[in-house]
Amino acid sequence: MTSLSFLAAADASGLWETLGQYTLIGLTNGMLFALIALGYTMVYGIIELINFAHGDVFMLGSFLALAMINVMTGRDWDWSDPQMLWLGIGLLLLVVPLFCAALNVTIDRVVYKPLRRAPKLAPLVSAIGVSFVLMNVGLLWGGAADRHFPDLISRQNLLGDDAAIGFTAKDLMVVAITVPIMAALTVFVKATRLGKAMRATAQDPVAAQLMGINIDRVIALTFALGGALAGAAAVVYGLYINTVSYQMGFQNGLYAFTAAVLGGIGNIPGAVLGGLVIGLARAFGSGYVGERWTSALVFVILIAILVFRPAGLLGARTREKV
Amino acid sequence: MSNTTAPKRFPMAWFYLALLVAYPLLVYPENALFRLTEISIGMQLTYIFIYAILALGLNVVVGYTGLLHLGIAAFFGIGAYITGILTVPAYPFQVGFIAALVLSTAGAALLGVLLGAPTLRLRGDYLAIVTLGFGEVTRFTLRNLEEITAGTRGLNPVPPPQLPGVLATPLSWLGIQPDWSLDYRLFYYLALGLLVLVVVLLTNLERSRLGRAWVAIREDELAATCMGINAARVKLSAFALGCGLAGMAGCLYATTLTSTAGPDAFDFNRSIIMLCCIILGGLGSLRGTLLGVVLLIGFDNVAAPVLDGLIQGANINPNGNPLLTFSNWKLLIFGVALIVMMRFRPEGLLPSRVVEEELVGYAPQPRGKLLRAR
């Protein structure tokens, strides 16, 4: 990822400064992965489907954000004015998640819902199919080459120009957007009636339905929430990484899925923890092992976790029901 | 399981085989266009045979045994690279084709076992992810170990096999030139011959004790274990055979292409396309798998470029509009095909009888029914 190499090159003189810098980069990137991972984990928690298309919903979200920025710039939106800038980002954070939520719910309705009682392979293969379709839509929309995403937020170091560790306005933006979203999600799932219904459905759909929960609505809500989180992540990703391409959904989707599995799939705090760990692993990997090995490293971690602790870091070990 | 013999189960098999054997030997009009079409179709058929071996390997793992393997392309690539390392002039080995074929098959099978041994106890979708992850790790490793694999350039030239002397006379009767680079028909028959061998092997395995154990595991692992089947061993054998066949296909691929191709020829998309082939044809069905390969690889390698050429030739698209380039719609077509198949014909076009019976009871459900409680 471009920003990783960019920041890793920042002059951090001592050993500890370097370590601190990588940790900071890792945590910031990890927040992003966590946001995408939440969508995977929530959907898996409810219907036990690895939603391969999730990463591509995220990708289309970032294309929409890019298109909106281009239109707004064309209409003389003044991005250099801080007020207009935050207003614009607010607008993006409203429209793109709505779009992604609607897209995700539509996919569920059209493709997955008819397969609820099919053997497990059927929805999984369909999800791969949806992923291909969305990727192709992205290819036709944005072209095969990487697209530049406007660099709207300054790279100025908030800790002072000659501080040993860089923490830029961009990094702050990531934290300022992702952390409240995750907090809101936790409150929603833990404290509201609908959140309770979601948890009940995840635990046992039949029993939940017997208790009068409309599980179709709960599932749709889950897809909507997951999509919205992916949309928010898409905006943040575009503003932070500044490059989008039709293939990024697959790559980032895999990282995010790894994060979800790492934390214990179906487990919401687990996904956040997993995202942070993946972010850190990538940052340290590109800092100490070499940038080109980072992706391989992430997958090696994934395989190791699945082999030695399939339930993930926070997941409870469940026995297969017969 | 029926006890009918192979020719009865595939009444048309001999006919198709005869057609494929005869195709390059027929005399075509000496018209330049005809000649060119014959050669290019013959060359594409060679690749279709190779991919058919790959798909049959995947079918052993996914179709018979029901283990979702999303990284078959990695084993295809491992086979190709083992062949490359063992035969290219840059390395001192230069063992020749037969040894390379055996070693890449064995090497891929061994890696399959190494990957499978710790992971096969995982639940279905977790196994899918592990194989996917392994596929990606393999691709990155092939790309990054530049000192060994030459990075994105790939290893070349992979030399053609040595023709045994006894074949010289029959070849000259048939009018085939004894030079691999001049006459596509040598590779054509080599690939066809190996494919037939694999099909014969699998037809027999299908009805053997091991083949029935694979299917039993797919149908119900617990019940199969209760019947005294050693699930771990049976699954591992399916994994080894499937990955081994993939490695064999990889060796053929590298030899035919005279290069290992770059690591990106063995990416996730390749795995998915092979999976699409066997799903389209019918999981666990030999003839279905072959049909799926012909349809999908034919579409991918033959129909799509031809359509692209037609669109270009007809001058519909003078400005290079990407929406009018047919290849840009390929993923969409693959994706829709997968979705539609899963919805309306999950058993595939030519399903195996067992799978069909299993899936007949499953029809698209009316709305608002209960979730399947696992």
Residue runs with pLDDT of under 50 for 5 or more positions of chain B: 1-7, 363-374
The CATH class of chain A turns out to be: Mainly Alpha
Q: What is the number of beta strands of chain B? A: 0
Report the structural category of chain B: mainly alpha
Total domain units of chain A = 1
* Mean pLDDT over the residues of chain A: 87
Taken in chain order, the helices and strands of chain A follow as HHHHHEHHHHEHHH
Structure in words:
The complex is a heterodimer of chains A (322) and B (374). Chain A is mainly α and 322 residues long. Chain A has a single domain, classed as ABC transporter involved in vitamin B12 uptake, BtuC, CATH 1.10.3470. Chain A has 12 helices and 2 strands. Chain A has a two-stranded antiparallel sheet. In chain A, 51% of the residues are buried. The N terminus of chain A is likely disordered. Chain B is mostly helical and 374 residues long. Chain B is built from 16 helices and no strands. In chain B, 67% of the residues lie in helices and 0% in strands. Chain B has a domain of 226 residues. In chain B, helix 3 packs across helix 14 and helix 5 runs antiparallel to helix 12. The chains are: A mainly alpha (322), B mainly alpha (374).
